[in-house]
Amino acid sequence: MSRYLGIDFGTVRIGLALSDPTATLCSPLPFLENKSIQQVISDLAALVKTHEVIGLVIGLPRNMDGTYGPSAQKVRDFITQIQSQIPLPIQTIDERLTTAQASKQLMGIGLSHKELRKKVDSSSACIILQQYLDQKLSFP
After folding, report:
1. CA distance 120 to 64
2. Which pTM does this prediction carry?
3. Which SS3 state, helix, strand or coil, does residue 29 take?
4. In sequence order, what E strands does 3-135 have?
């Protein structure tokens, strides 16, 4: 059994998604408020323990031209802080357009803008994690 936790880091909210035990499909989890990095790491550690997570997949933002900007540095800093307290492998994956894709999907099912804000971060995390799982399955 191999569960992965997907993370879409944001300065206000951190979207989360969890794979199934076969690491084939994922589902969104409730987002975390990003008010205190120590609280976020504590909450992540609890999820890792509860769900027996074996690895983290974190979206790394890139500019449309493929370069990295200030947002990518914030994610790298977040990863550094996680690594010191959660000893799991961490993979990053290009997250360009995942928020737009998640927003489009959620609007397609009729969510209001208020409901959309509550779900878009975790839906983005699910897209990030599913991309990783699909790549993992394609390359043994």
Report:
1. 20
2. 0.83
3. strand
4. 3-8, 13-19, 26-33, 53-60, 90-94
- pLDDT digit string, tens, across residues 6-37: 999 989 999 999 999 999 999 999 999 999 99
What is the tens place of the pLDDT at every residue in 49-78?
A: 999 999 999 999 877 777 777 888 999 999
Strands 53-60 and 26-33 come out as: unpaired
Question: For residue 127, which of 118, 117, 116, 135 has the smallest C-alpha distance?
Answer: 135
CATH 3.30.420.140 corresponds to the domain 3-138: yes
- CB-based contacts of 7, cutoff 8 Å, min separation 6: 14, 15, 16, 44, 56, 57, 58, 59, 125, 128
* All structural domains of the chain with their residue ranges: 3-138
